[in-house]
Amino acid sequence: MSVLVMQLAGPLQAWGSAARFARRTTEPAPTKSGVIGLLAAALGRARTDDLSDLAALRFGVRIDQPGVRIRDYQTAHHFETDVSMPVSERFYLADAVFVAAVEGDADFVEGLHRALWRPAFLPYLGRRSCPPSRPVSLGVRSDLTLEDALEKEPWHAAAWHRRRIREPQVSLETLIESGPSGVGADARVDSLRDQPLSFDPRHRRYALRGVVPGQVVFANPARTAANIPDHDPIAALGEA
Fold it and tell me: What is the pTM of this model?
């Protein structure tokens, strides 16, 4: 088994799991369906193609920079009839950075890595209006599990975001798919309907999957003792 590690960063991202009608929401972190869709596009697969091999990959994500939730209003036309649709309310994550990973067969995972560097279709972060601002693939980790890959991968937040965090350490939230071998059996397991079954636009289908929340702690290089000046609030009075 190998793990493909990806960074998902861009001005805007949108990862929906329960969007209905004219209200299109976003989850606070990338969904499995969204990332599998990105990989399927890189491979050049049509929306009606079989997804079973991609859906069988075990998925996890780490929130390196949570971003800010924003709202927009958009118009659209039906893809078959060209009839104008109602104005829709759409939500996005602005300035967010995530580390996502999928675990599976070594040869298959290596093929996904190559496809991300030479994608057949343009990759996007949940919606077509959300292109990535950095290369997506961070490489294949053949000697690590999904959990270890998310724990050991360096913190990819922007420098300005690191400077805004006052603490010398930062705790990053992880959301890791519970595995069939009992992974997460002793932890809280949440449910999320983002297990892709079909991307066919005439009948998209998703199933529930188990997600185990966790945390990874990193040192904040912008707040180490060496680069934080001593603060003496009465120093100016003494000099006066």
Answer: 0.85
